[in-house]
Amino acid sequence: MRRGYKWVDRELAGMDPETDWERMISLYIGHRVPEFALAMMIYPGTMRMMQPSRTAATLAHTGKLETRPHRRFQDGNSFLMAWMVNGLSSAEGRSATERLNRLHRAVARGTPQLPGNFDDIDDFIYPLVLLATFGDRLQTSLGLPGTSEPMKIAWHRWAQTLFRLLERESGPLAEEAFPEDWTAMTEFAAKFEDRPYEQTESGRRVATAMMDFFAERWFPPPLRAFGRDVTRCLAGERVCRLHRIGWMSPGRERVVRFFLKSAFRAQVLVPDYRTPLPERLRRSALAASERRRRHGS
Questions:
Q1: Cβ contact 163:178 at 8 Å
Q2: Would you list the DSSP string of 49-111?
Q3: Which helix (H) or strand (E) holds 168?
Q4: Contact (Cβ atoms closer than 8 angstroms) between residue 151 and residue 207
Q5: Residue 130 belongs to what H/E stretch?
Q6: CB-based contacts of 95: which residues, under 8 Å, 6+ apart?
Q7: How many CB atoms lie within 10 A of CB 278?
Q8: Per-residue pLDDT at 222
Q9: Which of 39, 173, 185, 275 is deepest in the core (most CB within 10 A)?
Q10: Which residues lie across from 168 on neighbouring strands?
Q11: pTM
């Protein structure tokens, strides 16, 4: 029986990130991360991932983000929980990887008008780097302590291992180069985000849908505009201007940053979760489904 207020830190302190990285990620995500933090990573993160026009066009083609955003969120959760909490070496983790590879092949076959949309190696590296470094980049940008050195090693091992399990249109990525450590991952992200990207209508539509869903899912009607600003802040000004979803005034940005900083500080004070994140997500999905049923949507 786990006992104590912040028991996750005690367990992590006794682990070697070179060999125990899979368990470290599982403990941290499963028992430290709230559902809201996962949503902050998935939706604004996807807006960052679709900076290349081919990625935005592919997401627009599938239509799920615009027409069934709640289902897209649940699908994203399913993959991340299998990879992060169950672990990449688990049956669930392996199954999720195989499922994603099949999905990519199917979408590639269904979009002949977008040749090579699943073949650029950087489009596979960046999402994994973003997932691994998102928390650290956000917290340090708010003036808060970032990820510990052991967790940086664990996150790098996780991202590198998952990358080598994925496949692009022209074949497996197992032998392709991945950033060699945490520093190389952050440098890759900075260079990827600094490239010149072109504005697209598909990018605007999908980004707007994601921003609206995030605000509607997590904020009551009087605070929906604030929720959209939170999404903008998490995505970043450059990404928001690329997708033409607007940016905030300096005053509104200060309010959003204060909110995010306060949320992180509050999380430090609350006890670690006893119920694993996959179970919390399952209960939340059931409750959301019941709300939609009652409202006939």
A1: yes
A2: HT-SHHHHHHHHHH-HHHH-HHHHHHHHHHHHIIIIII-TTSHHHHHHHHHHHHHHHHHHHH-
A3: strand 167-168
A4: no
A5: helix 122-141
A6: 82
A7: 19
A8: 96
A9: 185
A10: 171
A11: 0.91
